[in-house]
């Protein structure tokens, strides 16, 4: 028994020590940095973050952007997962690869694609002029619409996976039983399917919101200086303004909001998952 | 089985087009013969691929990303495989806490990790060094590697190991000839997924890179920021092709949906 405990320690200790040195210590140091002022430790940076209208705009923009991206990605991704689930297995396999594949490609490449599409002489602009929707070249670069589209593109695969996995847990007989009892398609979806995939939708919404709220490369390229978000503001404070304590305070706020959301959501999620598994059919896939 | 109506199929087509559009745009533009981002329909050439070889800036960054990904994925595997075996095979106090702690980097925005490492490495004088970048990458990719190692270790049927023991195999033999072989696909996929996450990482690396040590996504980011020229598209197209090849390999070895959903 003693030897087993020694072995377990040796198996987990390297990873834990690595995390202590490279996760706990750096996060602590950024936390301390955020309280640094010229006259010793103080709350100056936080005061500025919470009172300067410049930062208030950035926070509100990030929040609005993330909410919109989450809502759009949820609707599109859930719809696509439902469509996929009704295809034959071989089509499912092909389209899952097509839809999830972009996750393996750097976000910088995908964002470059949107920058090309959105540019003044890009295909969208050419098409709009050809259709007489616009007189001159139009550009979605540095626009909220463009930024939302690009972020939805980056995040929607996560919704498709999440909902698709929870759809796998539904016994098709349940839908058939509903239909045989005279329920129409919408009722079947609302009463039988939706409750089962709700945990999947909820956990996807958390992932997407967090992804959109903390995204850096896409807002930096598509939004530019004009549409700054929290992540790009942190980058600027650190690398162009060289006001590290202020950047650190922004980072701490972003981190706390993110971790807070995750723990809050986890509680809601566990409750809805329990409800979803109480009745009907095969057991739900375990959360990953 | 419920069937898709015409409306769902139209939605599906639009969705797939939306998914593919930016990638197709990148690949088309890479074949232009113009000096700016243009579609190749009025003149195609391979000049921007030639330009990649002539100005080896991107190739250097590509090589940096390759060794950075390989070393940090290996380091992350060395850390996560033993931990995954311990967590999945034994019941012990603090087991759930350890596994939650090891997955926790997933909760931390990369921009926050970027500034934290920038500060930390600057204090220790190792910012912009390979060691710092490798360590930072190993940290963010370990959760992905751990997850696949865990799911592989969880899926082992312990009766196979018991059978080996009853046939007289020693513990070491059971481990190297049974356990390790059974989880090998999971280990390989864990390494590959970790490599890909390191290879694609841009946000955190943007804080830690130096002109002499710049991973490819950061080099692309800086080039896109100051002037979009089609060589960026050529390099990106090569990345898309590589990702497609990686996808095929992963799908053969382990099953793509298993990797993405991180289960079973």
UniProtKB/TrEMBL annotation, chain A:
Keyword Cell membrane part of the UniProt annotation: yes
Origin, by domain of life? Bacteria
Boundaries of each ABC transmembrane type-1 domain copy?
A: 59-265
Which SUPFAM superfamilies would you find in this protein's record? MetI-like
Chief localization: membrane
Q: Which residues cross the membrane?
A: 7-34, 54-82, 94-120, 140-167, 197-222, 242-265
Asked whether the UniProt record includes NADP among its keywords, one would answer no
Report the subcellular localization: Cell membrane
Q: Which InterPro entries match?
A: MetI-like (IPR000515), MetI-like_sf (IPR035906)
Tell me the keywords, alphabetical order.
Cell membrane, Membrane, Transmembrane, Transmembrane helix, Transport
Q: How does it sit in the membrane?
A: Multi-pass membrane protein
User: What family classification does the UniProt entry report for this protein?
Assistant: Belongs to the binding-protein-dependent transport system permease family. CysTW subfamily.
Stated name of the protein: ABC transporter permease
Automatic annotation (TrEMBL), chain B:
Transmembrane domains' residue ranges: 7-31, 66-88, 100-121, 133-153, 174-196, 232-250
User: What CDD domains does the database record attribute to this sequence?
Assistant: TM_PBP2
Q: What is its main location?
A: membrane
Q: Highest taxon of the source?
A: Bacteria
Keyword annotations: Cell inner membrane, Cell membrane, Membrane, Transmembrane, Transmembrane helix, Transport
Pfam families (alphabetical): BPD_transp_1
User: What does the record say about its membrane topology?
Assistant: Multi-pass membrane protein
Q: Which InterPro entries match?
A: MetI-like, MetI-like_sf
Q: Which residues form the ABC transmembrane type-1 domain?
A: 62-250
| Compartmental location | Cell inner membrane; Cell membrane
Please give the family membership noted in the entry: Belongs to the binding-protein-dependent transport system permease family.
Query: Per its UniProt record, what PANTHER family does this chain match?
Result: INNER MEMBRANE ABC TRANSPORTER PERMEASE PROTEIN YDCV
Protein name per UniProt:
ABC transporter permease
**Protein source organism:** Pseudorhizobium endolithicum
